[in-house]
Design goal:
This is Putative membrane protein YkgB. The protein is built from three helices and two strands. It starts with 70 loop residues before the first helix and ends with a helix. The chain is mainly alpha-helical and 190 residues long.
Length: 190
């Protein structure tokens, strides 16, 4: 064997996997081109007027409505105020008459009409009828006044009067009960 470098076997090299070449070579971004200045749009010219212009479409003209009768609102208000006043008067009378017949307990009042003498029962009978009439007629007429007031407000037939009728018809039982309770409490024997 000779000592020439050409004939000596090469030393084994470690394995290096092949590297794929890059698909795209890195490049710098190109400079953006400037756009040319645009021309201004010319002013639009008006068309010459050839014919007269008809008016545009509009809502159909309706005849003015004649004012509606305010009678429904007035009836509602009158009926409600009558129920209000008569209910308060009846509550005052019933409370004053029933007070002496009531017995006070620690938290309320109690009535025992079974222990009344014949004279007391005879004196209390008209008060009982007034109380029944107040409940029956006051309720019926109050509901009628309330309904008439609502209809008057909804149909614009005496709206302010209808509002007063609604308020009076709604407040009548509340005020009547308060008056009855106060008068009864004031007239109960101690």
């Amino acid at each position: 064997m000779s000592d020439s470098p050409e004939q000596q076997p090469a030393l084994p090299q470690p394995f290096v996997p092949p590297v794929a070449p890059p698909l795209f070579a890195p490049q710098a971004y190109p400079q953006q081109q400037a756009y040319p200045q645009q021309q201004a749009y010319p002013q639009q010219q008006a068309y010459p007027q050839q014919y007269g212009v008809a008016p545009g479409p509009g809502w159909a003209q309706t005849a003015p409505q004649p004012p509606r009768s305010r009678a429904l609102g007035i009836v509602s208000m009158a009926l409600a105020l009558a129920v209000f006043v008569l209910s308060v008067v009846a509550s005052t009378i019933v409370g004053a008459a029933a007070g002496p017949l009531a017995q006070r307990t620690a938290t309320s009042f109690s009535f025992n009409t079974g222990s009344l003498s014949p004279e007391q029962a005879e004196a209390f009978a008209p008060i009982g009828l007034l109380m029944g009439a107040q409940m029956l007629l006051g309720t019926l007429l109050g509901i009628v006044a309330l309904v008439l007031g609502i209809v008057a407000v909804a149909t614009k037939r005496g709206r302010p009067f209808g509002i007063v009728g609604i308020v009076a018809a709604a407040a009548a039982p509340i005020v009547s009960f308060i008056v009855y309770t106060v008068v009864l409490a004031a007239s109960v024997p101690a």
